[in-house]
Amino acid sequence: MPELPETETIARDLDREVSGRTIVSATITKPDVLRGISARKLASRLAGSGIEHVWRRAKLIVLDLSRGEHLVVQPRFTGALLIDSGQLPAVERRYSTMQLALDDGRSLHYRDIRRLGTVSLMPPDEFTQYTARLGVEPLDSAFTAEHLSALVRRARRTIKSVLMDQRSLAGVGNIYANEALWRAGIDPSRVAATLEPRESAELRDALVGVLTESIAHRGTSFRDYRDARGERGGFVQHLAVYGRAGEPCLRCGAALIGTHAVDGRMTVLCAHCQK
Asked: Which of 3, 8, 137, 202 is catalytic?
């Protein structure tokens, strides 16, 4: 699933490429990805709208439109927003669910192989209410060691679950929760409230560090993630634990453990290094 670095990469690319363009027409071929609006109504409301700004909130890609509405895309497992100047591969077109024709002759496709992602058109008040339910952004200045320490002090769940709870911390998923906990030397199964302030500070720095580095490498691609240019992210080569169960720990050499026992998701850790 695209997490913060992947959706941030897509949003930055799109903001650079399509901000200032006008949507001439919208064609929705797979309306089951839509939420709260019909294909006919979405096409009608998008036609003639200008794209003013593209940005990310949590794991969402948000297109601010000239009529005040927000086109909100949640890519989930296999979704991608791809710019097409006439050279988009046929295999990508095959899984296009929505095509926005732009006034410069290019198109913007929402491609989703498994169609588990969603597309919504929200007026300002609905968008404000929706995003108000999301937690702090880990790359914002408000996400301090003190903020994370306050979050974990009252949490009786595992620390990994807290990191992935979008109501507490927006944009972090399984990949980067695993990586940050390894960097900080913290067992993912520990009850969050047991973390000392020093450990919270180290975890905060580890999380910010891994997210920032992944953005610099344009995200992590295992299978389906592609950036707006259709290219793969390069951070997979820098992962320390995720996808490496059974391989040696890069810090101590012990075999990494892979388990679904922590939160039902694949957790990879070093039992020797992470306490």
From this structure: 3
The per-residue pLDDT for range 202-241, each reduced to its tens digit, is: 999 999 999 999 999 999 987 678 887 788 888 999 999 9
CB-based contact 206:180 (threshold 8 Å): yes
CATH class assigned to 4-132: alpha beta
Active site (annotated) includes residue 196: no
Class of domain 145-269: mainly alpha
Q: Which one from 12, 21, 251, 265 is the annotated catalytic residue?
A: 265
Does residue 25 contact residue 43 with C-beta atoms inside 8 Å?
A: yes
> Residue 1: pLDDT above 90?
no
CA dist 109 and 95 (Å) reads 9
> What is the average per-residue pLDDT within 252-272?
96
112 dihedral zone (left: phi>0; alpha: psi -120 to 50; beta)? beta
Average pLDDT, the chain: 96
265 is catalytic: yes
Q: How far is CA 250 from CA 211, 246, 272, in A?
A: 19, 12, 12
Q: Where are the beta strands (DSSP E) in 115-260?
A: 118-122, 257-259
Let me know if 160 is a catalytic residue: no
Q: Which one from 56, 57, 59, 111 is the annotated catalytic residue?
A: 59
The one catalytic residue in 2, 5, 75, 188 is: 2
Domain chopping of the chain, boundaries = 4-132, 145-269
pLDDT tens, 30-77? 999 999 999 999 999 999 999 999 999 999 999 999 999 999 999 998
User: What pLDDT is attached to residue 229?
Assistant: 78
Provide the sign of the torsion angle of the four alpha carbons 212, 57, 54, 219, taken in this order.
Answer: positive
Q: Is 2 a catalytic residue?
A: yes
